[in-house]
């Protein structure tokens, strides 16, 4: 077995949630907000619209029945996103050397 690295480089990840209806949809809690992938982790985009900038997301919970993603923060409450349609994360630019 060999591990491969996926995700946005240089972030601290705290939790991951996967959509059971479509395992290609992956959500990641990080020190820079919520990131999502719709291709099994090959590409990632930011899904933090509506969450104040700079908040550390400490945990995620995805409810497959209600299609809601909950994001817990340190000291600023929980934010809930309704995902009636597949997630549409904004593309994250690749770091330049």
In terms of topology, how is this protein built?
Elements: E1 13-18, E2 26-30, E3 33-37, E4 45-46, E5 57-63, E6 68-73, E7 78-82, E8 90-91
Antiparallel strand pairs: 1-2, 2-3, 3-4, 4-8, 5-6, 6-7
Please, could you describe this protein's structure?
- The chain has strands spanning 13-18, 26-30, 33-37, 45-46, 57-63, 68-73, 78-82, 90-91.
- A hairpin with a 4-residue loop joins strand 6 and strand 7 (78-82).
- It has 97 residues and is mainly beta.
- It is built from no helices and 8 strands.
- The mean pLDDT is 87.
- It has a 5-stranded antiparallel beta sheet with strand order 1-2-3-4-8, with no helix packed on it.
Category from helices, strands and their pairing: mainly beta
Mean pLDDT, all residues: 87
H/E element order: EEEEEEEE
Strand tally is 8
Shape: globular
Q: Please give the radius of gyration in angstroms.
A: 13 Å
Instruction: Give the CA-CA distance, first to last residue.
Output: 30 Å
Task: State the strand order across the main sheet.
Answer: 1-2-3-4-8
**Helix content range of the residues, please?**
under 10%
- What portion of the residues fall into strands of 2 or more residues? 35-45%
Are there runs of 5+ residues with pLDDT below 50, and where? none
Task: List the total number of helices.
Answer: 0
Major sheet attributes: 5 strands, antiparallel
């Amino acid at each position: 077995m060999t591990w491969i690295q996926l995700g946005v480089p240089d972030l601290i990840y705290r939790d991951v949630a996967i959509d059971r209806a479509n395992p290609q949809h992956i959500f990641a809690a990080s020190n820079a907000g919520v990131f999502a992938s719709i291709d099994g982790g090959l590409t990632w985009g930011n899904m933090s619209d509506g969450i104040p900038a700079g908040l550390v997301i400490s945990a995620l919970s995805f409810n497959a029945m209600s299609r809601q993603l909950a994001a817990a923060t340190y000291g600023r409450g929980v934010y809930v996103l309704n995902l009636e349609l597949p997630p549409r994360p904004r593309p994250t630019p690749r770091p330049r050397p």
